[in-house]
Amino acid sequence: MTASPGRGLAKAEKIRLIMRTLDELFPEPEVPLRHRDPYTLLVAVLLSAQCTDVRVNQVTPVLFALADTPAKMARLSVREIEATIKTCGLAPTKAKNIRALSQLMIAEFGGDVPRSLEELESLPGVGHKTAQVVVSQAFGEPAFAVDTHIHRLAYRWGLSNGKNVVQTEKDLKRLFPRERWNDLHKQIIYFGRQFCPARSHDAAACPLCSVVGRRSLLK
């Protein structure tokens, strides 16, 4: 019987191949959301929920021209923020959260973005994934924020059972070197967008699914 692409490789070999391929394709992955500092990154990541990075990058220059610090944002009304971000989706909720987290940062953290996951997740509208992106990309702390692209690819490559993002995060942190997490997070996202879409995916032509993918992908 012919071995499937993924099963024909030892797990360690598969991990090395994935990292090598991603390094070749995306050697210096940048944060896709435009930002100036930890605060503007936090706001941009919050806005990216159920919204494309392209759309967020169109909205944030206008928003940050009005307010690019917690103090300035707290002086805006929820209505003003909502009007500026209305094309992002979920604008009413996001506007309330952006103003509220700005106020809380002033009251509890001296106007600075907190550096720990626990403190970040205490801010309105900031979930685990958003907090991980901020600590990794703003402060250089190792984190592996799992979004829909990473969750999908981890399953396709046989790295996780795909039941939920919490389990996927644990599996990827166990499999990949800690010092690689921050770059891998961005590399896998870029790979998913370019080569491994959710729909109309040609696994046989995919640089990684064709080699390390599950058997069912190539049927």
Keywords:
0% strand; 12 helices; disordered N terminus; Endonuclease III, domain 1; mainly alpha; Endonuclease Iii, domain 2
**How many runs of DSSP E, i.e. beta strands?**
0
CATH superfamily of the largest domain: Hypothetical protein, domain 2
What is the total domain count? 2
Average pLDDT taken over every residue: 92
CATH architecture of the largest domain: Orthogonal Bundle
Q: If you consult CATH, what is the topology of the largest domain? A: Endonuclease III, domain 1
Rg over C-alpha atoms, rounded to the nearest angstrom: 19 Å
The top level CATH class name of the largest domain: Mainly Alpha
Major beta-sheet overview: none
Short description:
With 219 residues, the protein is mostly helical.
